Amino acid sequence: MGGVVGGAVSGPWVVALDDPAAAQVELVGGKGAGLHRLVALGTRVPAGFVVTTAAFAAAVAAPEEIEAPLRALPEDAPV
After folding, report:
1. Of 20, 29, 42, 59, which is most buried, counting CB atoms within 10 Å of its CB?
2. Beta strands at 14-16 and 8-10: parallel, antiparallel or unpaired
3. Are 11 and 54 in contact (CB under 8 A)?
4. What's the whole-number average pLDDT of the chain?
């Protein structure tokens, strides 16, 4: 299982939806695991991949850099 170690991501950054590892919610999040389940059940899902939770966490290590501008938007802003 990957994680963030010393600011760097250990383990995979992305996992294919048809990879059995994509069933692990801790690794790929709930939506990624749900898409994997659909693939595993044979549902028509476009081929794809999911960014791991550790890679996402490393990319947004300072969430305030993302949240501050969003919080500054007026309530009626078209987002």
Report:
1. 29
2. unpaired
3. yes
4. 86
Longest dimension (CA), the chain: 44
Q: Show the tokens assigned to 70.
A: 């969003």
**Average pLDDT for residues 55-62, to the nearest whole number?**
82
Is residue 47 a contact partner of residue 41, using CB atoms and an 8 Å limit?
Answer: no
Residue with tokens 């919610």: 25
Q: What angle do CA 43, 30, 39 make, to 5 degrees?
A: 15
Beta bridge partners of 51: 14
Contact 32, 22 (CB under 8 A): yes
Question: pTM for this structure?
Answer: 0.66
